[in-house]
What we know:
Helix content is 41%, strand content 18%. By secondary structure, it is an alpha/beta fold. Among the domains are: 5-52, 434 Repressor (Amino-terminal Domain) (Orthogonal Bundle); 164-296, Response regulator (Rossmann fold). It starts with a helix and ends in a 7-residue tail after the last strand.
Amino acid sequence: MSISAKELAQKLNISAATVSMVLNRKPGISEKTRNLVLDAAREYGYDFSKKWDTAEEKGSILYVIYKKHGTVVADTPFFSQLTEGIEQACKGKGFELQITYFYENKDIGAQIQELSEKNCQGILLLGTEMDVEYFQPFTRLKVPMVVLDTYFEELDCDSVLINNVQGAYLATNYLIDKGLGEIGYLRSSYPIGNFEERADGYYKALRHHDLPTSHPYVHRLTPSMEGAYTDMSEILREKPPVAPAYFADNDLIAAGAMRAFKEFGYKIPEDISIVGFDDTPICDFLEPPLTTMEVPKKRLGELAVLRLLQKIAGETKVMIKTEVSVKLHERKSVKG
Length: 336
């Protein structure tokens, strides 16, 4: 015989309204109280299927897209596919998906208040452009939350992201194994967490092969195709030393740099080999097609949703960092 919500409230000596809000996955309840009710509900055999069988009763998930400058988080295939994975997972699990934007240059307090008033069961926070100090206000929100596409060492929060260190390491190691000589780095001029981790992977590969980590082949470029092209063109006008191979922080940087290199008379891959990161559709349309690190973007979104649903259901209290592995997708931009 399963216990009723009213009986559960009496056992816990808390209001029936509070128990009802937890069991119906309503916002506005502290994580401590939510876990208390869910733990007791499972212990006393509460029948969750009565509450959570239909999409209407499961409610909604709020997808918050954080924007600092919008240069990285833009309308690109990467984020379109990531969002598609989130949408498919929510639909498959019977949850409605709400999407909203959060702007760093606007009133933070007012935006947090708006989020707190949303009727949602959990929040997916796209933190690609977020710095750690700006995450703190989000801790005031009283619903389960998972941070997507970034990780903060200083904070205890659930995160789902790409294994950036691994990807950059594999890309750089691939170029080294090709025997191309010194390996340069087309590095993002925007210091977001993902790119900093890719820098760690790049330098880790150099150290592994006893190669110098201090060299003139690191070029700071805007992480967009047009921006990278403009920046690389300005650098090449100064006639700097050029490496025979480069790892680029993302495909857009690689594409912009390739255009600049070719305009200055370099052939790809005969003179310069390049490996990108993300495996966006543009890779197939470049000349030559770009070798890159393939990221399972839809799966990344799906995993974030699944982790959030575990938290909503009260299945775990342990914070987890989930990193999705990447793999090399060879095309024609690397010599040999």
